[in-house]
Amino acid sequence: MPFSSIMRLLLAGAVLLAPFAGSVGAKAAEKAETVRTAAELSGKITLAGSTAMQPLVEEAAKRFMAKHPKVQITVQGGGSGTGLSQVAQGSVDIGNSDLYAEEKLKPEQAKDLVDHQVAVVAMAAVAHPDVGVDNLTKKQLIDIFTGKITNWKDVGGKNQKIVLVNRPASSGTRATFKKYALDGAEEASGIEEDSSGTVRKIVAETPGAIGYLALSYLDGSVKALKIDGVAPTKENVVTNRYKVWAYQHMYTKGKPTGVVAAFLDFMLNDPEVQGPSGLVVKSGYIPTTDMHVMRDHAGNVKKIVVFQVGSQTYTVGGERYSMETAPFVDQNRTFVPISFAATALGVPKNNIVWDPKAKTVTITKGNQKVVIKIDARTMSVNGVNRPLDAPAKIVNGRTMVPIAQVAEALDVEYKWVPETKSVRFW
After folding, report:
1. Do 263 and 345 belong together in one domain?
2. How many domains does the chain have?
3. Which of 9, 177, 190, 209 is the most exposed place for a label (fewest CB within 10 A)?
4. Mean of pLDDT values over 101-130
């Protein structure tokens, strides 16, 4: 989605409390139906792909099958490329991947796949604990993996030969590490292993070895290295200060149905998986709702803006700002002051025009013009009236506007996080 669309949305200055009111009842009914038929779930699901996310998916599958004894789930590895190609061919139900489908498949294959982002995984360069180094510059890292530096003493470590341990070309971990840690440089030949678990074992047992692993595989047997002094930690990943990370995708060919849809709902929405003490966190992954940035398949990074009901602060890319009037809920909608929503994305104030006589606010961005009138049940989008479930209003001298229909009109992506009563835009 174009960044300009996001800016247009946030200029409207409101934040959605939950999915659109018209769909709340339908979703509740759907949830009730899911509960009613939960015991009846049966069938087989086959997944293949990323070994970085395999431990998470295997444990989730185990728990799901315990709840639904008539469901059989088989989780295979093989790497992200394998998962993507197999789900595109229809040979598995779900393809697990550390990569966007667009990064690995041809456009005609990727277009049929539906992306379900489960978590975020960071990858670290890992070395044998006795190499004598805990930090490398990016240039040193690139020179090591391209074969220009072959001894640890040349980067401040022991006088010991460097042993490279790589993943195969189908690996999403390798692709992510190559893209963001090595700036796309081609790796020199070395030991090549199909699974992250085997890479960890070899690096831990081979003096002078270096490889790369998802943080979820770190267990103290290998040393995670800093890059340019930045440690591969969650705190550094969520703001993109540490840049070697990727989404964990579960792709389906078309919209999932039946038992596959039920399992994906469990992966994406069940507190047992996604909650503060859920499998995602316990397994060493990062919930997508903790991220302060988002990144598309081309590597473009956008800051995520977060407004929370009742809070007089909001965040932009993890940086916190204050505002006088807190977002609030009315008629199942969340309202946020326009000026702060605009400031969140650095939009010039002259792009927002308040007409005190007409009691309207006009937001202009490029060819898009949105006009919202206080207390009106409609808004104008490029001259066409659109309905508003809840009218805009003035509170404490601030113009507060609901977001639901504005979001629909401007195709802005957002996610409501019920645990924190906040909404995230990107």
Report:
1. no
2. 3
3. 190
4. 96
